[in-house]
């Protein structure tokens, strides 16, 4: 059980490092799909099957359309791959930061973070993801505003990732 969760978390971190190293839009989009898949795996492992399904469907349905549009605007003749020099150096630098942060904060907090949401004592009558959906709808105003802000920020991140060396999607048409 811990091996599968550790594998999902390692894939999530490596995918986030690949996105942060800012390769070409094509590899950035592929890295974001991998990150979404591993993130949904982590959510499923902790008992959030409904939230994981919604996240993955919304991500694949909405954000990949934005990526396809932005990648069409910023088509590069020679895209940077994940193994090229500058991208590999930034990936190793980010990985070093992640490892050093992990070693710095390695303490007793990790032994309590592996509890699945269905094993918490207040949640014995129904599944944890359904309680989360009910809370999201009952206190939905703040969550809606945070979600809208995150989607707007994600749009600008996508446009910046696909910009490349040219003006890209943020140019004046």
TrEMBL record:
Pfam families in UniProt: Oxidored_q3
Signal peptide: 1-15
Compartments where located: Mitochondrion membrane
InterPro entries: ComplexI_Subunit6, NADH_UbQ/plastoQ_OxRdtase_su6, Nuo/plastoQ_OxRdtase_6_NuoJ
Keywords in alphabetical order: Electron transport, Membrane, Mitochondrion, NAD, Respiratory chain, Signal, Translocase, Transmembrane, Transmembrane helix, Transport, Ubiquinone
Catalysed reactions listed for this entry: a ubiquinone + NADH + 5 H(+)(in) = a ubiquinol + NAD(+) + 4 H(+)(out)
GO molecular function, one term: NADH dehydrogenase (ubiquinone) activity
Enzyme class: translocase
Main location: mitochondrion
EC number(s) stated in the UniProt entry for this protein: 7.1.1.2
Topological relation to the membrane, as annotated: Multi-pass membrane protein
GO cellular component: mitochondrial membrane
Gene3D superfamilies membership: NADH-ubiquinone/plastoquinone oxidoreductase chain 6, subunit NuoJ
Transmembrane segments: 52-75, 87-110, 130-159
Family: Belongs to the complex I subunit 6 family.
PANTHER family the UniProt entry points to: NADH UBIQUINONE OXIDOREDUCTASE SUBUNIT ND6, NADH-UBIQUINONE OXIDOREDUCTASE CHAIN 6
Function per UniProt: Core subunit of the mitochondrial membrane respiratory chain NADH dehydrogenase (Complex I) which catalyzes electron transfer from NADH through the respiratory chain, using ubiquinone as an electron acceptor. Essential for the catalytic activity and assembly of complex I.
UniProt protein name: NADH-ubiquinone oxidoreductase chain 6
Organism from which the protein derives: Lagocephalus sceleratus
Gene label: ND6
């Amino acid at each position: 059980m811990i091996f599968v969760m550790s594998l999902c978390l390692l894939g999530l971190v490596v995918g986030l490092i690949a996105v942060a190293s800012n390769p070409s839009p094509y590899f950035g989009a592929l890295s974001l799909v991998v990150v979404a898949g591993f993130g949904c795996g982590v959510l499923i492992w902790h008992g959030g099957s409904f939230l994981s399904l919604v996240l993955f469907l919304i991500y694949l349905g909405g954000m990949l359309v934005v990526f396809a549009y932005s990648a069409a605007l910023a088509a590069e003749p020679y895209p940077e791959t994940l193994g090229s020099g500058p991208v590999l150096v930034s990936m190793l630098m980010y990985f070093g930061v992640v490892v050093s942060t992990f070693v710095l904060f390695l303490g007793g907090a990790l032994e309590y973070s592996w509890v699945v949401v269905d094993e918490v004592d207040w949640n014995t009558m129904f599944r944890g993801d359904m309680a989360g959906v009910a809370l999201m709808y009952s206190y939905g105003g703040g969550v809606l505003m945070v979600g809208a802000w995150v989607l707007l920020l994600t749009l600008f991140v996508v446009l910046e990732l696909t910009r490349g060396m040219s003006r890209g999607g943020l140019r004046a048409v």
